[in-house]
C-alpha cells in the first residue's frame, strides 16, 4: 500500500447563511476552526448543511478539497483571486499533497482519534457559480475533475488542524477518484468496469446501486 501522510492544514465549519443573489440558504460559508473539534457520524459538531437531500448525511459527513486546486482556479479566474482560497468551496478539510489522482474510493484514513473513509466525489452544483460569482464555474469544476470528495465516519472522535491525515487501508488501489469520475461520466462506460466500481468497498450505497443499474441497462441495450 502506498504510504500517505499529510498534515491537515485547515479545518473548516460553518452555519447556514444566505447565498447571493437570490438568498437561498447554504452551508458553503465556512470559517477556520481552531482546537479540537468533535466529529460524529454525520459530520463536525456545529457544521450545517441546507439542502439535506443532496448534502450532508453519513456518506457526506466531511468534504475534502485539495488546496492546490485554488492555484489553478486563480490562473483561470484572476479577477476572483481575492476569494479563491481554502474554505470558499465549502470544504471541511484542506490539505496539500492529496488530489483526485492520488486518492481512491474506499481509502481509510486516521485523523486525530477518528477514522474516515472516502465514499464518493463531490457532485458540483450551481451554488459554486454563485459562491464564486463566476458563471460556468461549476461546469469547469466538473469537467476538470477538480471536485474534491466526501468521507463517511468509521470511528467518531476529535480532530484538529495540524493533525496528520494518514492512509491506513486501501481496498481498491485501482479506483482513483479521477478514474472513477472519468468512468461514470463517460457516454458508454465499459460495463465490466462499471460493475467493478459498483462493488467497490466503501462506495456510498446509493452510488453503488446507480452504477449497478446503469451497467444492467447498458448490457440490455447491447443485446
Structural notes for this entry:
α5 packs antiparallel against α6 (205-222). The model has no long low-confidence stretch (mean pLDDT 95). The strands form three sheets. This protein has a nine-stranded mixed sheet, with no helix packed on it. A three-stranded antiparallel sheet has the order 7-6-13, with no helix packed on it. A hairpin with a 2-residue loop joins β10 and β11. The protein has two domains: 5-171, PK beta-barrel domain-like (M1 Pyruvate Kinase, Domain 3, Beta Barrel); 180-222, no CATH class. The termini are far apart. It has helices spanning 69-76, 127-132, 137-144, 177-184, 191-198, 205-222, and strands spanning 5-7, 10-13, 17-19, 24-26, 31-32, 37-40, 43-44, 62-66, 93-95, 108-111, 114-121, 149-155, 157-159, 164-169. With 223 residues, the chain is of the alpha+beta class.
